[in-house]
Amino acid sequence: MTIGLLGAILVFLIGVWFGGHPNDLPNGIRKHFVASDTAVREELIDTIQHDYYKPVPRKELETASLKGIVASLGDKFSQYLTPDESKSFDSQLNGGEFAGIGVTVVPEKKGLLVTGVIPKSPAASSGIKQADVITAVNGKSIAGAAARTASSQIRGKPGTTVQLTVASPGDKTRSLTVKRAKLKAPIAESRMVTRDGTKLGVAELSTFGEGAHGTLREQIDRLLRDGAKGLVLDLRGNGGGLLQEGRLVASIFVPKGLIVSTHGRASPEQKLFATGGAISPKIPVVVLVDGGTASASEIVTGALRDHDRATVVGTKTYGKGVFQQVEPLSNGGVLDLTVGRYFLPDGENLAGNGIQPQVRAKDNPRTSPDEGLNTALRTLLQKGA
Fold first, then answer.
1. Which residues are tagged catalytic?
2. Which domains does the chain have, with CATH numbers?
3. Are 72 and 112 in contact (CB under 8 A)?
4. pLDDT tens track for 319-333
5. Within 10 Å of residue 170's Cβ, how many Cβ atoms?
6. pTM of this prediction?
């Protein structure tokens, strides 16, 4: 009896262990458990589709189950994107055409903080401005949702409408119906301005999509050829993008040394160094940032600051501190998963903190002068531009 009881307890404990650690099961047994799990998922969907009091498309239930798995992580940066959502995401990230309302956003406690509005876009025509917060889409709260998941609810076919609940600074909330349109997100734009008789270049980078560093370098080289004595790199509202693009953009200004290091549970520490070919160190640089400056934008800002290559002007950055890896899935969708943390050259991780500017400047989006840019230009002159 005693041996039998001990055997039963042992089998129970082994079952508990493998129940919580299915990867430790032998291949054949693990496949059986995974198959059973899949069968339960299909059974659940079948039952809902057959017995729920109103019809629900099967594809909608399958998508919800995949999104629910990722949402259970409680990570606002990880998400599952359907095939259609992933195409729209790729187009916007890489400066292609996409259908939406024309805003750039980052996650915020109440929803999505608007960090930029494309001129003449549906959002601009509807009165949405920088610093507004989108709190609900089609009547459903998006508080706590991953940024791209919530953004995908706002995007849709051109000509269709989306209902948004928008809160402005001062807690004034309004409901808007906005018609979606085909848009093209510019990657980089530049212009020359003159202050006190000195030519100064301003280069704005909106995203760190594939090839962003090359586009930005073309703009900067043109500004320098045209006689710019100093440069403002405007990263306000830039929510980031590809880690490697962050490294390459920083390398435009930093001639050598560490740009960023990464740590992931499934991958060893990686150190990314400047790639060479930087512009002359005699050209003074200011990086202009705000609360929408996140991820790869913060990597660039931190690298230029830590290498004493630029002065940081603006308001505190977002404070992301983690990076994602996009894994294509067999159904054409993608898993955008947080896989590690990144650290600036001096060892700082920004999660929840952000970069404090060396010169504080806050633009008032309700006024025509750009107070932040004006401060950045004055700082350039003080640096000897």
1. 295, 306, 320
2. 2-56 (no CATH), 79-184 (2.30.42.10), 188-382 (3.90.226.10)
3. no
4. 999 999 889 988 888
5. 6
6. 0.77
